[in-house]
Amino acid sequence: MSSLSRELVFLILQFLDEEKFKETVHKLEQESGFFFNMKYFEDEVHNGNWDEVEKYLSGFTKVDDNRYSMKIFFEIRKQKYLEALDKHDRSKAVDILVKDLKVFSTFNEELFKEITQLLTLENFRENEQLSKYGDTKSARAIMLVELKKLIEANPLFRDKLQFPHLKNSRLRTLINQSLNWQHQLCKNPRPNPDIKTLFVDHSCGQPNGARAPSPANNPLLGSLPKPGGFPPLGAHGPFQPTAAPVPAPLAGWMSNPSAVTHPAVSGGGAIGLGAPSIPAALKHPRTPPTNPSVEYPSADSEHVSKRPKPMGMSDEVNLPVNVLPVSFAGHGHAQAFNAPDDLPKNVVRTLNQGSSPMSMDFHPVQQTLLLVGTNVGEIGLWEVGSRERLISKSFKVWDLNACSMPLQAALLKEPDVSVNRVIWSPDGSLFGVAYSRHIVQIYSYHGGDDMRQHLEIDAHVGGVNDLAFSNPNKQLCVITCGDDKTIKVWDAGNGARQFTFEGHEAPVYSVCPHYKESIQFIFSTALDGKIKAWLYDNMGSRVDYDAPGRWCTTMAYSADGTRLFSCGTSKDGESYIVEWNESEGAVKRTYQGFRKRSLGVVQFDTTKNRFLAAGDDFSIKFWDMDNVQLLTTVDADGGLPASPRIRFNKDGTLLAVSGNENGIKILANVDGVRLLRTFENLSYDASRTSEAGTKPTINPISAAAAVAAAAAAGSASDRGASVVTMAGVAGDTRSLGDVKPRIPEDSNDKSKIWKLTEINEPSQCRSLRLPENVRVNKISRLIYTNSGSAILALASNAIHLLWKWTRSERNSTGKATANVLPQLWQPSSGILMTNDVADTSSEEAVPCFALSKNDSYVMSASGGKISLFNMMTFKTMTTFMPPPPAATFLAFHPQDNNIIAIGMDDSTIQIYNVRVDEVKSKLKGHSKRITGLAFSHLLNVLVSSGADAQLCVWSSDGWEKQRTRVLQLPNGRPLSSQSDTRVQFHQDQAHFLVVHETQIAIYETTKLECVKQWTPRESGAPISHATFSCDSQMIYASFLDATVCVFTVANLRLRCRISPSAYLPASVSNASVQPLVIAAHPQEANQFALGLSDGGVHVFEPLESEGKWGVPPPIENGSASSVPTTPSVGASGSDQAPR
């Protein structure tokens, strides 16, 4: 049954319940098996209606389905048997024994014999195990508690225990919308239609001069009846009218089918039970990028779409009990702007392009790279931080012989070509250029000034008016539209045409691809003002509406994909920005403040999830999305054209604006200024560049990480977005093949090396010991929550400790900080999160844990069973996988949160699917216990490490072992049986950190080669733990002599050393207290936490006056020479960013 059919059943269940058809409701629940009504089940059990109890259960499970089901039926039948004995109805008891309980004898014959012997007793309470059996009512209540636990743990009931959240009378509302839609199709629609039946489609009779009024302020809907225009229907009362201003048709955007002769909407009915329609997809948004024409596929979108969403607590994992429903990935966003002052309004750069900019786009990762297309066909690439133009290229057809004759004729007749659109692909590895003559050119970008021809497509007859990238079916595509009235979809790899959408009656002006749930679609607008929408099929347009202005219109979504906007200008110069109600296909609000007659076509953009901006009246105008009144206007120090072209960068910290005389102005807010200042201070030395003869090539992955790191120097609100973005966008492995990333060689140039900073006194850094009121002996595991507002520790005695920071005058962000004491948090119940402990001593047990992405649940083990805890209540939700073997490391799959890699003390790795409670694969390659696991979502691999000092790389597609390598131990260093080897992926997802007591090393994953290694002196203390900073530009390492060191990733050189005296009291010996584990803040690159052997946890930050660990390399002639000229992993930190 399709998902829509399933949803229809839920709507019918709601309708039957509202209409008080109680027996029918429960009959449908049982027959469909979609929803187990626990309340009804409880009532039947309390009432002792055993036949109905079993009949209802039979719709969901049978006796022999699994052990949970068997126990459920056994408890019910046992209770029925005991009640018969209690009433001294022995004939009935015998009947129950023979017909109902006999089936269990094959599974437990001794138990069946014991039950049978109860017949011989005068009172079955004489049996010791039944001596506490009370009266029937209390016995049923006690049994019901056990039954509920069994049902919740039974995988067959998963996803069936909670009814979906629906608005009241949802089915009635949909029918009412369908009637509205039918009424629109009437040739002579009456203002107050008389609906007498639902058995046939509605049709108005002769108009008798009356026509339905056109709804006001609703240019998409054409003529519609007024809200509530239909009389009450049927015996059950009136249907509820839909939300104002106008009742939506069921198909929302699918009203008013086009009169042109292209295929009609598939399905055609009021409720589609086949393929999902556009409106179904528009209900539950996912998170696309800021760029409205680029969509990012969610890592788990396909996974989510393949199953009903589990009900209950909100999280992203399903475990053996129904406690972890799936959530949509990517909804976590950085904090929104706090005030209009955070808008980029100050001019910080003025660039001279040489010709008039027509289109601009910032790189999605390296957010200071600006791509520009101009009115003479020129494309330029600017590093706005250093004000350097990296690329300038004039229009040229790559292969004239391959062009169509109409294109060749057009170029001969009129050789002048303009750029209509430039845009980056989602990961920034490609960019596309749409020209005013037929052509689309796609370039691959490899960092610096290295761009290469990738595809040239003779796309349309006439101009190509817009261009976008999309990922239907997980395949990168290019979408174009043009003067020939078509939209076309092309394979971005080989240029093959996949779809041609026809149906517009005028040149197509813009395209806006998007997706919601698993439904991919494209909005398009044409110069006649028509808006259409297309699925990736050949079924024609699903939408035919008139856009405000009815001429040049563009559409864009907010950053989180939940709000849709359009901006249009009419031929008379009237401009509009509106927000749409997607579910109804109606204008939700119209923003005010435009010049009465705009002197050109207005362009607009959105930023974060709060602001709109448009170029109008020689200025940039800003609106708050929730307020139709103009927020503010900026003239950018003058010199703007009448309708300037504008473009935000992804984080909304920079705004590019086209100026007069071929100029481009870069506006910035405080964080944007800080970002640009980083590049200004750390640009390449021009003289060294000229000596080299060529510009240094920057690995796009490294450069991206550097830009994210530079952004991390900004405020906390945008810092999180930058770092998280980096982890998700390194999606195209082509960049790995074209430019091999590697760690740079050590340089003898001392000017490139950070000056070592020694911190020996508490006054030289900020350190804070977290409060303790729960006695633990040592901290074994430590992690920051993903929000950055709490720290979770696991002690060796299996107790978890959670410290939370809250917002206050001293801590406005509510993030973890060394300036403010947090609260050691416990729920009001006072319970502790304590792991199951096996018979082994705490010293022999290997603690491990993994935190869910939304910080709601922690999965943890301390030598015993794996436990799942609710982080809000500290309750143990479930336990599973009892030893042996015992779990020693846990890691969630990055793209499927129901898959967990579990390292074991028997040297195996078990790939466990929590949804079906099943081990899918068992990986064997190590000889000792597993000590580290890390996934790369870019390479689709799992890297494992063990106490055998061995590294293994496994494919996460089929779980085959791809490569293995033994750790390179320093000469003369024996392998300790107790030594852990840890692994952690670099932000580029192509390199990983290896931590062993003898070394810190960085490995390249595809060849499993060590590209950089640091070892302590032979007389030095062993390394206890190490981790990347959140931006992967530093490594924090702790040593068993209580020293903490900070390394620069680019060269693995020591830049800061913190002595024990800086944080341990003088009375404490560093021989008795050692740091055992270290954790990096997820957004603050210069903050880390240390877990100690005395049970203490310390948070460290550099002094506010310094802002970072160590002293940066000196700056020569305004340029730092610290950036290597070879591609590198994290070659540049937040203080060493490249151009």
UniProtKB/TrEMBL annotation:
Residues 1118-1139 have a biased composition (Polar residues). InterPro entries: CTLH_C, LisH, Topless_fam, Topless_Znf, TPL_SMU1_LisH-like, TPR1-like_2nd, WD40/YVTN_repeat-like_dom_sf, WD40_repeat_dom_sf. Keywords: Repeat, Repressor, WD repeat. Residues 285-311, 1108-1139 are annotated as: Disordered. GO terms for biological process: primary shoot apical meristem specification; regulation of DNA-templated transcription. WD repeats lie at residues 457-500, 602-633, 923-955. Residues 34-92 form the CTLH domain. This is Protein TOPLESS.
